[in-house]
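step: validate -> pass
step: tokenize input -> pass
step: predict -> running
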Amino acid sequence: MPTPSPLSAPLSALLTTYHDLNASQCAAFSAAPTPLEFMRHVALNRPFVVRGGAGEWPALRRWDEAYLRAKIGARSVEVAVTPDGRADAVVHDAPCGGGAPIFAKPLETRMPFVALLAAVRAQESRTTPASPVYYAQTQNNNLPSEYAPLAPDVPVSIAFADEALQRAPDAANFWLGGSRSVTALHRDGYENLYACVVGRKRFVLLPPVAVACVRERDVRGGRYAWADGSESELELRLDDDGGTIPFPTWDPDEPGVRSGLADLSRPMEVWLEAGDLLYLPALWYDMDYGGGFHAMASFVRDVGNLADAGRGSRKEGEGAEGLEGEAT
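step: predict -> pass
step: emit ->
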């Protein structure tokens, strides 16, 4: 039997105390917060949902399959391809890993948007899972470039965040996938505001204190590639540089596997309906799931730049805010 870590007891006490003092459900509001109220939530580092917070966006009325096809057409777009819909996720049983976990990045390719849309629709129409899974998920300010015809459908900023942060968004991204598209458990150094435009979207959230639960490990990196030149079967290949990536190895979908202190975690499940806004604080872990054809948008703020502001390298209140969009 392994010897318990000397940190187990204090970490258990920390987790228990945190959950005793903080609700395990996401706060929900019927109206957008004022800039001051928003900044209070930023300071508390706690998520919230605004029901109907994006209800007046033009995208709510326009974004469906026919509209997207008409607007984007045969434009070439970058696409991530995986065997199971989990891009940038830890794989524990890959032959190339020899039993060790591998951080699996997707095969990245380009294809006409209408071909991507057809592939996603075909995935959704099958009664059994089929490989591969296609997902447009780049985060390189693609909305004003690859998806420029859709930019007028999304506001350039969210008013309460724009005023509170004293700057306009820095980037805008559009994503498209299907119900098998899953974002693995991860965390980012950004303040996020997600808006569900079409359909539904499910999130599983964990606070930063859950770092004691998610079993972050340095894992080898790899990337999917077509097997033997085919375009129907993928294989995972190790990166040549031999580098490692710190990443959670615990999966909320398998709570009893590689759990450790995860038994003390309280994952927060959040469902967004069309028109809802979710505030996801910086450094929170999130895992999100596709729900058929749906559309998302998110505004983000880089907390690293806020730290610089606190040290005086920026004007007071200045951060870095961006916009991301998703259609899945």
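step: describe -> The chain has seven helices and 19 strands.
step: cleanup -> pass
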